[in-house]
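Long-time lurker. I teach an intro course on protein structure, and each term I like to show students one example going from raw sequence to a predicted 3D structure in token notation. This year I'd like something fresh instead of my usual example. Would anyone be willing to generate the tokens for the chain below so I can use it in lecture? Attribution to the forum is fine with me.
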Amino acid sequence: MMHQELVEKRRWISEHRFLHALNYTMVLPGPEAQQLATYIGWLMHGVLMHGVWGGIVAGVLFVLPSLFILIGLTWIYMVYGDVAVVAGVLYGIKPAVTAIVVYAAYRIGSKALKNNVLRTMAVLAFISIYFFKVPFPMIVIMAGIIAYIGSRYVAGIFQLGSLHSGSNKSYGPAIIDDDTPVPEHARFKWSRFILFLSVGLALWAGMILLLMQAYGWQGTPTQMGWFFTKAALFTIGGAYAVFPYVKDGAVEYYNWLSKTEMMDGMALGETTPGPLIMVVAFVGFVSAWNTQSFATDMLPLAGILGACVVTFFTFLPSFLFILLGGPAVEATRHDVKFTAPLTGITAAVVGVIFNLAVYFAYHTLWPKGFDGRFEWVAAFIGVVAFVALTRFKVGIIPVIGGCAAAGLVYAFF
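-- Reply from a regular --
Happy to contribute to a lecture. Here you go:
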């Protein structure tokens, strides 16, 4: 949608510069779509926006609507989640979400796993996180190290070009065109770099200290800030790579919310407009509600504050990545490539995403464990959803809508 609107229709930015920015955001931890919006807003200095403020406005407004929507939906879920209609809709959406995650792993894997070495790395990543519970950041670090060392001996195996085609396609002159000089604010300056880094760290430290003063270091709000900072810094590969890390931490380690609630949050995230990573707002809302972190006598207020805190710590690093690294990206605009460590990390992320699919499938098809009954209807809905996505290229929203309707029918009949 961003490509169609900004490159093809409005002609704010050329195809080449759009894809160059996209390639950069793909190597960053965190949500690439929001980072791309921030980058383009930052670049439009003196044209339609104003440098740093343009990036902040674009990035914030990319997130804000879905934050409001998810806060409203999560409140409804917490208050009315046991209503038969809601339960029926979620029954149909959960297998659809499982199919979507499998489809995501398939799409990324078909592009990224070009040889047996990369496929093996993906399998090893899956085994590590599923059977041995190796932390996601450790998997990312090890994959990057292995690829870096391997590239020194067999460079061809770890060379991965852009995942996007048609980079030389032209839609006519653009405001920021291929030959448009780098604007002054987008040139690297150490003074500017130190200023942005200082402000970013001050904002982060100020919020952490505020939470520590109010709730202590071990308090749930402070731990939420620390945990989602790590999630923002260590999850390379987009939203689907964030989910396993958040699931392991919020559900398995901290016990802020249940496995069922985590799956329901994923379902809500898939059906909500805006970046998929905004499911973290659901996690923050439910975690604060369950633990009564902020306001014991006003659970909705606690949930809202939890969602806002989590959103702040999740997206603050993204703004810093753009404002600090954007000038270097513009300076290397004619040398677009992925590094060997990124290739290895991308392969590992495929395995991690498949682990998430297995996790969702298990809790959808055997909600009470292997000792309970197998949900044949949910399995059928999931298979139909996967076939619709892969074979018939049906969009995600129609698939989710159809599955929700099927779950509703099953719940009442």
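Some talking points for your students: The chain has one domain: 67-160+189-329+337-412. Residues 216 and 222 are 7 Å apart (CA to CA).
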